[in-house]
Amino acid sequence: MKLQIPYHDLRSWLDLAGEIGEVRGVEGASWQEEIGMAAELLNHSDPAPAVLFDKIPGYPQGHRLLVNFFGGRRKSMTLGLPSELNNFQLSEAFTEAFQAITPIPYEFVDDGPILENIQMGDNVNVLSFPTPLWHELDGGRYIGTGSFNVTQDPDEGWVNLGTYRVMVHDEKSVGFYISPGKHGRIHRDKYMARQEPMPAAIVVGGDPFLFLMTCTEIPYGISEYDIAGGLRGKPYQVIKGKVTGLPIPANAEIVLEGYIDPKKRKPEGPFGEWTGYYGSGLRDEPYMDVKAIYYRNKPIIMGCPPQRPPDEISRYRSILRSGLLKQTLEKAGLSGIKAAWASEVGNTRMLLCIAIEQRYAGHATQVGHVASQC
What are the angstrom distances between the C-alpha of 248 and each of 22, 251, 360? Predict the structure, then answer.
């Protein structure tokens, strides 16, 4: 089944979600407590609407924040699939499209909405955006939850987009944690070994479909831009960052651009993670010196903070991963696989449900062993 994605950026997505009654507006909620509390309640309920916060105290009207984008009927709309499909059918249809695509490389353009406002040098101020405190005991405000980082391999030249939490340190620096083995971490480790600063861009608020691709296990050496372009059927338009030259989505809401110095560290964390605990404590991590900020008029932060499962993150991971799990089991040579579901309750990692047509003694045990390694 071919995807028919009916929007091109976060604003056109909001228009469509509003037309089907899936968006609510809230004015006057505080970044210190109320937005984070509301997000936790919303994220635990699939039928709950997306919520767009505005008139956040201390910030200009129009500096907005969106939470809970992936739920209800918004799931099929976001994936470009028919609204009558249930979650299991969405997963199989998306997997079918994902396996059939031909990647389409991104293309550079000279202009785009992201260039409506630019802060450079001394004018850079990350604190000019209404970043919430998502969880009560977080070590700081995390502007990057529904965001992705753009990096480039210094040896091979390919561009990676990866989702990593991003903490605001001050007006001109943000820290981020990348788990070992992630492609962005591999890029960073290469720069560290060279003792060279790594160029990076952090996209805070963008096309929801592209964000989902940055959360998906894309093979090493292939850019998420190209996979998302192939699924959309047209190339992603990007502008060249004025500081780093990295490709930045032309229709993004907010982009931070700068360098990560291998010799510099700042305390990062703790942060409320998907286990329901505060992950990784407080420790020194690399951070980005922000040299430029690009943003649209009336910019929108997209928030996707982790909560105890089931939550928003586990909802989209279930759909994106369940079909891939079934295909992986079949590629491992296992027969009789009827269906697979990476449960939202276990955040798609800790509870895998697999239906088989049992054909020999030990078949179910064999499937379980293989599934635990996928």
Answer: 29, 9, 53
pLDDT over 90 (residue 277): no
Q: Which of 3, 22, 10 is nearest to 71 (CA)?
A: 22
Instruction: Return the half-sphere exposure (C-beta side, CA atoms, 13 A cut-off) of residue 67.
Output: 30
DSSP secondary-structure letter at 360? S
Dihedral of the CA atoms 314, 319, 323, 329 (nearest 10)? 0
Is the torsion defined by CA of 281, 286, 289, 290 positive or negative? negative
Burial class (CB in 10 A: 0-12, 13-18, 19+), 24: middle
When pLDDT is averaged across residues 120-147 and rounded to a whole number, the result is 97
Partner residues linked to 168 by β-bridges: 174
Length of the chain: 374
| Residue 47 near residue 72 (C-beta atoms within 8 A) | yes
**Rounded to whole angstroms, what are the CA distances from 355 to 5, 197, 336?**
31, 49, 9
Residue 348 has pLDDT above 70, yes or no: no
Amino acid 344: pLDDT: 87
Q: Kindly list the distances between the CA atom of residue 358 and the CA atoms of 322, 328, 333, 343, in Å, as whole numbers in the listed order.
A: 20, 18, 14, 22
Assign residue 181 a region (left: φ > 0; alpha: ψ between -120 and 50; beta: otherwise).
left
Closest CA to 315 of 215, 237, 222, 220: 215
332-to-7, 285, 326, 336 alpha-carbon distances in Å: 37, 38, 10, 12
User: Which pLDDT belongs to residue 279?
Assistant: 78
CA distance 149 to 113: 19
pLDDT above 70 covers a percentage of the chain that reads: 99
**How many angstroms separate the CA atoms of 116 and 122, rounded?**
18
Given this model, what pLDDT does residue 211 score?
97
Output the average pLDDT for the chain: 95
Q: If we measure between CA atoms, which residue out of 297, 26, 256 comes closest to residue 142? A: 256
Nearest to 126 by CA among 305, 254, 31, 241: 254
pLDDT at 346 over 80: no
Give residue 12's Cα distance to chain centre: 18
